[in-house]
């Protein structure tokens, strides 16, 4: 039987991923709102698609925490304390720098999800383990779309 420690580690890992999804959601929306330049329309729409996908994942991850008996994030402050995705509060950001930042953040997310999956395996949480594969595929798809813009 998986122990309490494995369960606590999984909950902590899921809450970290949840914070990163929220942080990357708002960062992607920020770029959706502020992007400018010749590729405005494409990037404005792509960023919105990716933000929508990220936001939809937040509820799924938070409820994996609850189904594992843990407490999840409660506020913007709690998100800020847990997130590893860095804010970008600059007023003007070059459109390609936006694409690069999101590519790197989503690539880092693939690694975070890998750790969540390992924690789920340790804790015997098959549902999170399986869902993590979908989360990985989605993150890799976002990385792919962003990378191709820079190619
Ligand atoms: Fe919009």
Automatic annotation (TrEMBL):
<protein>
    <submittedName>
        <fullName>Starvation-inducible DNA-binding protein</fullName>
    </submittedName>
</protein>
<dbReference type="Pfam" id="PF00210">
    <property type="entry name" value="Ferritin"/>
</dbReference>
<dbReference type="InterPro" id="IPR008331">
    <property type="entry name" value="Ferritin_DPS_dom"/>
</dbReference>
<dbReference type="InterPro" id="IPR002177">
    <property type="entry name" value="DPS_DNA-bd"/>
</dbReference>
<feature type="domain" description="Ferritin/DPS">
    <location>
        <begin position="11"/>
        <end position="150"/>
    </location>
</feature>
<dbReference type="GO" id="GO:0003677">
    <property type="term" value="F:DNA binding"/>
</dbReference>
<dbReference type="InterPro" id="IPR009078">
    <property type="entry name" value="Ferritin-like_SF"/>
</dbReference>
<comment type="similarity">
    <text>Belongs to the Dps family.</text>
</comment>
<dbReference type="InterPro" id="IPR023188">
    <property type="entry name" value="DPS_DNA-bd_CS"/>
</dbReference>
<dbReference type="InterPro" id="IPR012347">
    <property type="entry name" value="Ferritin-like"/>
</dbReference>
<keyword id="KW-0238">DNA-binding</keyword>
């Amino acid at each position: 039987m998986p122990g309490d420690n494995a369960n606590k580690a999984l909950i902590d890992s899921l809450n970290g991923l949840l914070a990163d999804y929220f942080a990357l959601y708002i960062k992607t929306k920020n770029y959706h709102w502020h992007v400018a330049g010749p590729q405005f329309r494409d990037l404005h729409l792509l960023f919105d698609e990716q933000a929508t996908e990220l936001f939809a994942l937040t509820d799924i991850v938070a409820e994996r925490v609850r189904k594992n008996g843990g407490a999840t994030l409660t506020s913007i402050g709690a998100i800020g304390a847990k997130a590893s995705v860095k804010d970008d509060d600059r007023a003007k950001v070059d459109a390609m720098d936006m694409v690069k930042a999101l590519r790197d953040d989503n690539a880092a997310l693939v690694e975070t999800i890998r750790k969540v999956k390992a924690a789920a395996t340790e804790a015997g949480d098959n549902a999170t383990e399986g869902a993590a594969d979908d989360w990985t595929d989605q993150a890799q798809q976002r990385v792919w779309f962003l990378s191709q813009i820079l190619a």
